[in-house]
Design goal:
48% helix; 359 residues; 3-stranded antiparallel sheet; 12 strands; globular
């Protein structure tokens, strides 16, 4: 196989950087080939705001097949919607893991809202940031391609692997980079306070450890049903003997690592830590899934060992987390304020042209 023509799919652990700052794409980015058939004509170019001025009213927009929906009362051209949808179908964000089709569709509209808000705030990646972003894609794929250094190889890769032009590929990258940049900029704007109690809690979450075994389910109902039938150590052991490949072990790990890596809420993992050894805990959120855990070992931290000289270190740790939490709440609020209306029924998008990128 030609090294620059990877076929239908690449899957690697990626870390994107823009201006030297991690963009938190710390999971799989799956690059899938899209076909070249045009099932729809490209939507007219131009801004969504211009389309809004051309529409007679929100009611007329809902009846117009040229519009996919509304954001802040502004009609969204179908070309913009299909561009965004194809980007998300091609470049999977970690947040999409475990999402059902309806949740993925909402994720597309969430990011259209963020892109719209970024345009209002005049937030966009610089050319230097874009060059670093695109270079990071090839670094993550372990390909020695740089658009500025290997323009012909770059063009060949994009055309053969992505079935796109460099301009379209760069518009897709710019769309993603813009969304990440406004999210990053909003973190900086968030104002939060940190208490001494929160610093001590952060310390204990690092000092407290748990270990045991667990089983993951797609839904809370499935996890609850399993827990109801296997909440005793005896029932758990019997299931484990009969299904040795389903129960997974985990050795002593900090509560903070479980919170960060598995997205288990801190209150719930602290409750699990407080259980007696050899106890089966209640179902816990596990990212977009649910888990049932059995506690087999634990280590307890001692707040009397907290080093007051590290107050600033823990304050900054807690402050950073609270800023991201505040940013996420802002994202939900801006989506709510946008009063998104969806006119179009989701379907497989047609191939786009560079002009389809949201402006």
């Amino acid at each position: 196989m030609n090294r620059f023509n990877g076929g239908a799919m690449f899957a690697r652990n990626l870390r994107f950087f823009t201006a030297g700052v991690s963009l938190s794409f710390l999971a799989l980015l799956t690059i899938q080939c899209s076909d070249e058939k045009n099932e729809k004509e490209a939507a007219p170019s131009g801004s969504a705001a211009q389309e809004a001025r051309d529409a007679d009213s929100p009611a007329s927009a809902a009846e117009d097949p040229e519009f996919a929906g509304e954001i802040f009362g502004v009609p969204v051209p179908v070309g913009n919607y299909y561009f965004a949808k194809r980007v998300h179908d091609t470049f999977h964000h970690p947040e999409e893991a475990g999402m059902n089709p309806e949740e993925k569709e909402k994720f597309v509209w969430h990011n259209l809202v963020l892109h719209f808000e970024a345009a209002k705030r005049k937030i966009e990646p610089t050319e230097v940031e874009m060059a670093q972003w695109i270079d990071s894609v090839f670094t993550a794929l372990d390909l020695p391609i740089r658009p500025s250094e290997n323009p012909e190889e770059y063009k060949k890769w994009v055309e053969e692997t992505m079935k796109a032009t460099p301009q379209l590929f760069e518009n897709q990258m710019r769309y993603l980079a813009t969304i990440e940049k406004i999210k990053r900029e909003m973190v900086k704007e968030m104002q939060v306070e940190v208490s001494e109690e929160e610093m001590h809690e952060e310390y204990l979450n690092i000092e407290n450890h748990v270990g045991g075994d667990y089983l993951i389910f797609e839904t809370r109902e499935e996890a609850a049903a399993f827990h109801g039938a296997h909440s005793t150590p005896e029932a758990w052991e019997k299931f484990k003997e009969e299904n040795p490949d389903k129960i997974k072990p985990f050795h002593l790990i900090t509560l903070q690592a479980i919170i960060d890596l598995w997205s288990v809420p801190k209150d719930q993992i602290n409750e699990f830590h407080s259980l007696s050894v050899n106890t089966v805990g209640k179902p816990l959120p596990f990212g977009n899934q649910w888990g049932v855990f059995r506690l087999l070992e634990k280590k307890e931290g001692d707040i009397s060992n907290f080093d007051e000289g590290k107050n600033e270190e823990y304050r900054l740790r807690v402050e950073s987390k609270k800023k991201y939490q505040a940013r996420d709440e802002w994202v939900e609020k801006i989506y709510h304020d946008a009063q998104v209306k969806v006119f179009i029924k989701p379907e497989v998008p047609a191939a786009e042209t560079p002009e389809n990128a949201p402006h």
